[in-house]
Amino acid sequence: MKENKMKKIQKILWVIITIGMIIIFLGISTNSIVITDNGGKMPVQYYVEFETNRHVSFTNMENVRFWYFSDIFKMPRWIFSIGDFLIVLGILIVLEGSIFNIIYNLRENKLKRKIKKMLK
């Protein structure tokens, strides 16, 4: 009974990690699509001057292909796209699933037994 519960929990954790990886892939894909179709640069909707003297200039969004995947969201010190958001979200999901998986394995002493077997 306990082994079935353990296997179900591990399957759920691996599904969570897989979903995170798929979200990362979608974020990378959306960024790649807009960069490829716009001459190798990510179009930016805003003009921003950072304290580091870096300038990010805006693009006339009328001529941009796939403008909805470009950098259209603005925070005080960060301009980002839907793809950037998906990449960060996916990384957080993968990290969360991985951490829970490690904690669960340590709790069940499986990892300790595997390490002992490897060291023999």
> How large a portion of the residues is in β-strands, by DSSP E?
5-15%
In angstroms, what is the radius of gyration? 21 Å
**What's the total number of strands?**
4
As for the number of domains, it is 1
H and E order: HEEEEHH
Biggest sheet strand order reads: 1-2
Please report the distance between the alpha carbons of the first and last residues: 30 Å
- The number of helical runs is 3
The poorly predicted ranges are: none
Helicity, as a percent range:
55-70%
Mean pLDDT: 81
Major β-sheet profile: 2 strands, antiparallel
Structural class: mainly alpha
| Gross morphology | elongated
Write the layout of secondary structure elements.
Elements: H1 2-37, E1 48-49, E2 55-56, E3 73-75, E4 78-80, H2 82-107, H3 110-119
Antiparallel strand pairs: 1-2, 3-4
Helix pairs in contact: 1-2
Written account of the structure:
This protein is mostly helical and 120 residues long. The chain has one domain (2-119). The chain is built from three helices and four strands; from the N terminus they run αββββαα. The chain has helices at residues 2-37, 82-107, 110-119, and strands at 48-49, 55-56, 73-75, 78-80. The chain has a two-stranded antiparallel sheet. A two-stranded antiparallel ribbon has the order 3-4. Helix 1 packs antiparallel against helix 2 (82-107). The longest helix has 36 residues, at 2-37.
